[in-house]
Request: fold
Amino acid sequence: MAYEKLLLRNIHRDDSHTIDVYLANGGYQALRRVLKEVSPDQMLEEVKTSGLRGRGGAGFPAGMKWSFLPKTRDKPRYLCVNADESEPGTFKDRLLIEKDPHLVLEGIILSAYAIDCHTAFFYIRGEFHKGYRIFQRAIDEAYAKGLLGKNILGSRYSLDVLTYRGAGAYICGEETALLESLEGKRGLPRLKPPFPAIVGLYGCPTIINNVETLANVPYIAERGGAWFAGIGRPKNTGPKLFCLSGHVKRPGVYEAPLGTPFMELLNEHAGGMLHPDRPLKAAVPGGSSMKVLPASRCDVLLDFDSLAAAGTSLGSAGGMVMDSSTCMVGALLNLAEFYAHESCGQCTPCREGTGWFVKILRRLETGEGRPEDPDLLLDVARRVEGNTICPFGEAVAWPVSSYVKEFRSEFDDHVTRKACPFGAASVR
Amino acid sequence: MPEPNVPVPAQVPPQPELPPCGPDEVALLIDGRPVVAKKGATVLQAAETIGVVVPHYCYHPGLSVAGNCRMCLVEIEKMPKLQIGCATQVAQGMSVKTTTARVKDTREGIMEFLLINHPLDCPICDQAGECRLQQYSATYGKGESRFVEEKIHHDKRIPIGERVTFDGERCIKCTRCVRFCDEVTRTSELTLVERGGHAIIDTFPGMALNNAYSGNTVDICPVGALTWKPFRFAARVWFLKNVPSICSACARGCSVDLAAYQNRVHRITPRHNPEVNGWWMCDFGRQTCAPVHDMPRLTRPIVRPAPGGPGGTTGGGAAPSMGEAVDQAAAALRAAASRHGAGTLAALVSARLTLEEMHLAKKTLAAAGIARIVVPPHEEGQDDELLIRKDRTPNGRGAALLGLGAPDAAAAAALAADVASGKVRGLIVLGEDPVGDGLVRAEGLRGLEALVVVDWWTSATVQAAHVALPSCGYGESEGVYVNCTGRAQRTRAAVRPVDLAEPAWSILREIGRRFGLAGAYASAPAIFAEIAATVPAFAGMTYRTIGEAGAQVGGA
Amino acid sequence: MSAVAVPVSPETDRRVDELLTRYPRRGSALLPALYLVQDEKGWISDESMAYVAGKIGVSPAFVAGVVSFYTMYHRKPVGTHHIQVCRTLSCMLRGGREVMNRLRSRLGIEPGQVTADGRFSLEWVECLGACDTAPCAQVNDEDVALLDPAKADALLEKLGQGR
Reply:
């Protein structure tokens, strides 16, 4: 069945990142119409109707988040675009930023308009040098054409968009850590409540949205929330960018409606497993922080609710695929080291627990594991989960607990053999 | 048709009724007990009011909330995750549970995490005995560790400041010290560097933790990461006996605890007093326990030939009893008065004396006919924005209220000139060292026929004295100071005086007796009672009404 | 503000000043100002930290805390060609370790080190968000994709190693 590409409609055009190509293909028409005919509240309602859920990892309904803003206007409102894409396995926002920045920018302007915000910040991870240059140029182009700045397209609405580069910290993808970083500090997540919609950037009401989330808004503006809600599945609406990498033939970003089966993504979009003689062993559909699925449970639909029911999560849709050559202990050790490097260090369970996981897993992987170590991993993970300032606790606890649970015999094997059964061919 | 034999569902025991509360209050349950708390209060604060301890490290009432240690996680009905008590505001009808199995299990987990990289330094750590890791391990910990790995190592014994030592391995990264320097002293010398398990406290090269309040970081550090260098290895805290008192280093009069062991005050720490010093005190005040031990004490009375009289060197001196020395002192003063007139006698009275000592000074000087009384000032620097006063005496207000006069530089200079020029023939010096302070030169004292000094150490003035009478040093006797805001506060004795030293009021009483002073003046409280009865500003005050927090003097 | 030595060029100093009013609060200028200093000098010294602290109006310790938090600020000089290889799962699954091993042996240094002539340095970095081109790396701010040991050799030759 032919699926109309929306988010990736433009990316294969030459110079797709330029405003001229974007305009030539109907870009900014939605904005033009909304500024003339649609009130901010109506725009917000359309987004609510669309059922658009956040595409950064939490899947929180965007329209509902916007409606948490207080009614008062004694402080300015800010919109922060979360372009800190750092979840291992995720590279969809980067594609949009590099190849269709104006789609994102039009989404930013429409969203800022809907929430009566006049200054937006584009927080992009420091490592996205190319994306930063492209997006800054897109912003400059927009200003030059009167699509940003004072009185956009002759309307009474004004908006400034400022870029801000991160400097290498995964935790700055957490919305309050992003705010701390934007304020010029260490990226330490804040205690919640208060929530950013009430007390956010510089203490002002702030909405933080993911790049892909905002990229959907021009379509919602153009064709309506009800139309959008017709794509995907109930409560899991809209088109979705799915990333697939690891042991697949064609790693990449693939657009399909929410609810697409994982096996269809793997076999039809990504070309199936990399080596025909190495079958699927495990996959994380939603990025490294989500629970791993053994091959036997990969027959799932890719949407928020289906994956939650399957015991994992859609997360950032950063799918990673592991074939039979993968040592799951080694894979988990690789991720555990990631989390130990990226922990901000603020709160006790994460600061101490992430390092502990690495040390136990190193011993397991090098043949010095003890029989009680797998259970120890599970118990330490249990003590981290739910007890931290921010979801980073779950982000490390879920992989640890799920890899050990789903591949327990492999962990036990490392102990009894006093060696990694996969030897040098394993992940490490 | 209803089934007659269907059992009636068990009754849910009724919840305790929530008490009524005012417009700014909410009523909630903590462990089933009703509590009324102000709106905006946290669960931890509300629990404190009913004696429910919610263990915590990073929370401190004098600092912003950090919420990072996670030790204060408690169960709150209807909330699926545990919530930190230090940051969760109370709400009407909230039900908090701090003793469930889930909370206990979580506390065990936090304790385990805190200890896995913590060095087993207890045997050599100053914090032992007042360490929250120790206390909470005993109360909330599992009692055993499952950690068999190599711990993360950091530098130890770092001279993070002139008076503060830092041990990186003991640090639990609660950030109390960082918040203190950011929010209280606003000097921001401390920061966390690195991140994750390697996060650690540090200073910027060349900018050490040397603000005047650095010692408070040691107090608030829940573990032995920050230690007070003068106290390092000095004494185990469980041997220390804390005596509440008042600091004497300046006119602020911070409430303090003097910690004594083996008849020595080993350290001074602030005592919480919301009216005076909050939770803090300055570093100078902390160091005032050292001089009485380190400086050469005047342990016994000294009597020497009069400096200006025959055989007038100041070397050597006989060692009489207190009574004999007092006799000599009175005789010398009387002789000078009769030879040159009472108008040639003067007194230097220190603003470091207590009210009781000043009261007896006034009585005794009156009895002896000495009318010229000078209170020299001791000022250094400026009042800062926190606690430190440029007036480095604890009782200047007291001197003024008792009619001795406020500290007066001009009067002191005039007196010094008159001593040097020989206009003053007899001088009684109470707790002052005019020679050491540069007010007069030792040679300038030669014209005095009677130099009587009451002090606790062998100052230059004591060495020039005709009669030197040993008094108590700081921490060796009790008495009242009045601070810069007019607050009367009690000091207490934490250690015994050395050898023959006595409180100055007792020495002054004896001198006064030689001039016919009547009245028992048997104890400091008794003297204070007379002050309260005769000086309107102190009307109605007693040691009890002053209490531990002090009391404002009337019309001060 | 006490006089702090200005360790950067007048042009960089001017651009730092411009940053101070670009954001609604001056504090936000800290991260971009550090980048400006690093762009000119290649790394961030204690002197640079004190300079930036003075501009922003925060303590030098605060700046040290920020600099040490983020991986992209170098606290010692890096090579002219700073090669950052991704170590996270998808890159490892596709042979990232072999790429780094080749670079290590060709350059004779370990990750975290600089060659004696100062031209090359190596660093392990976490997921670069380019998993579709795994194993991937960055050289300074340029992306390098789909590496393998042979391509690592070619990369070093292109960068002039051995010349």
